[in-house]
């Protein structure tokens, strides 16, 4: 099966050796997105705002691949400080459509100043 790189200027450019996303057949893998606004290059202020921006970045990459948040079947979410889970979860619940994807939320050392990072797998129904 052919793997196709997914790119968009409507999400932050990769800061390392990875793609924003990869599509292989009906599967789309989106690399971890942080709460950076691609238009300004600035990190959103606070966990809720970073969660909203990270999901917006994920959504833009999915759109570039021909998918949407409705296509997401699994999310992996990373928090610098797991004591901020409730604030993260409240923002996540508002933006992710039902049924919510399977999800893991993990405490992690996120590069840079970010508090939140979100990566997803999506399946496109052709």
Descriptive key words:
single chain; about 130 residues; alpha+beta; 60s Ribosomal Protein L30, Chain: A; about 25% helix
Summarize the structure.
By secondary structure, the protein is an alpha+beta fold. It is 23% helix and 30% strand.
Topology of this protein?
Blueprint: E1 3-6, E2 21-24, E3 27-34, H1 47-64, E4 72-79, H2 85-95, E5 102-107, E6 116-123
What does this 3D model show about the protein?
The protein is of the alpha+beta class and 126 residues long. The chain has one domain (3-123): RutC-like (60s Ribosomal Protein L30, Chain: A, 2-Layer Sandwich). It is built from two helices and six strands, in the order E-E-E-H-E-H-E-E. It has helices at 47-64, 85-95, and strands spanning 3-6, 21-24, 27-34, 72-79, 102-107, 116-123. Helix 1 (47-64) runs parallel beside helix 2 (85-95). The longest helix is centred in the middle third of the chain and has 18 residues, at 47-64. It is globular, with a radius of gyration of 14 Å. The mean pLDDT is 96.
Instruction: Please state roughly what percent of the residues sit in beta strands, choosing from under 5%, 5-15%, 15-25%, 25-35%, 35-45% or over 45%.
Output: 25-35%
Computed over alpha carbons, the radius of gyration is: 14 Å
Strand order of the largest sheet: 1-2-3-6-4-5
Taken together, the total number of domains comes to 1
Q: Order of SSEs, N→C?
A: EEEHEHEE
Helical region count?
A: 2
> What can be said about the biggest beta sheet?
6 strands, mixed
CATH architectural label = 2-Layer Sandwich
CATH fold name = 60s Ribosomal Protein L30, Chain: A
Summing up helix and strand content along with how strands pair, one would put the structural category as alpha+beta
Distance between the termini: 16 Å
The CATH class designation is: Alpha Beta
What's the number of extended β-strand segments? 6
Query: How much is the average pLDDT?
Result: 96
User: Any low-confidence stretches, pLDDT <50, length ≥5?
Assistant: none
């Amino acid at each position: 099966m052919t793997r196709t790189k997914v790119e968009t200027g409507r999400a932050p450019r990769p800061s390392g050796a990875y793609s924003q996303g990869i599509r292989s057949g009906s599967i789309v893998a989106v690399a971890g997105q942080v709460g950076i606004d691609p238009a300004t290059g600035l990190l959103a202020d606070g966990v809720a705002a970073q969660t909203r921006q990270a999901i917006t970045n994920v959504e833009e990459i999915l759109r570039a691949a021909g998918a949407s948040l409705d296509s997401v079947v699994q999310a992996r979410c990373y928090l610098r400080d797991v004591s901020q889970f409730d604030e993260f979860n409240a923002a996540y619940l508002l933006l992710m459509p039902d049924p919510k994807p399977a999800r893991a939320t993990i405490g992690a050392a996120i590069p840079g100043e970010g508090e939140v990072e979100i990566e997803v797998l999506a399946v496109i129904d052709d």
